[in-house]
Amino acid sequence: MTASAAKVSSEVLLRDAANDERDARARRLSMKHSGDDALEILRVAIREEFPGRIALVSSFGAESAALLHLAAQIDKSIPVIFLETGKHFAQTLSYRKKLATQLGLTDVRDIRPAKDSLYTRDRAGDLWKQNADACCTLRKVEPLAPALEEFDAWITGRKQFHGGGRLHLPAFEASPTHIKVNPLIRWSKDDIDAYYTANDLPAHPLIAQGYPSIGCWPCTHPAAVGEDIRAGRWRGAAKTECGIHGR
What we know:
Elements: H1 3-32, H2 38-49, E1 54-57, H3 64-74, E2 80-83, H4 90-103, E3 108-111, H5 115-121, H6 127-130, H7 132-147, E4 153-155, E5 172-174, E6 179-181, H8 189-198
Parallel strand pairs: 1-2, 1-4, 2-3, 4-6
Antiparallel strand pairs: 5-6
């Protein structure tokens, strides 16, 4: 075996060992905290398991204020990553500023796609029309990767009641690069609404216009009463996720 081949083999073994360790840690944490409420899961993740090495990724969408409010009770300085795709509704950008100020969040990071990538792959700004997956990769998946490099874990707002691939989410899960923390997995729509009311949290302004789930404007549409909460996302396409949770 050549020196370069031996180096590659060693790197693969180390990566596989790290993945195995991450998987085992996520399973252990999920089992240990399966009965804990959302605030306790967050406290454990932020204060005990990943102090200084965890971020919260938020879309500042229809349900985001609940998770952000919970996290702010533990640490207002937690890094909050907002993927500023350049395709958000104006209402979302205003809401992001209002909510961050109201909750006292001190480290909200607007993460944008690389300018050279936009120029070479989406110069006209209409990639979403031809290939929504490629647009999400360019504007969300790729920018998120370097933004998370300094962290060992990140917090998501995913919930089991959203269905699809989220139906059996654990509280802690391993990805190829991080441990993801899902403190709201057992929350229902009624739980979210009650939390907003109890804590006087402002609603995203598009909710009143029939948008129960809010992403980028080209691929987000209102949902009819009785439809699945995410029915307006990529309507008419088989696509159900933006791709960041493939990491």
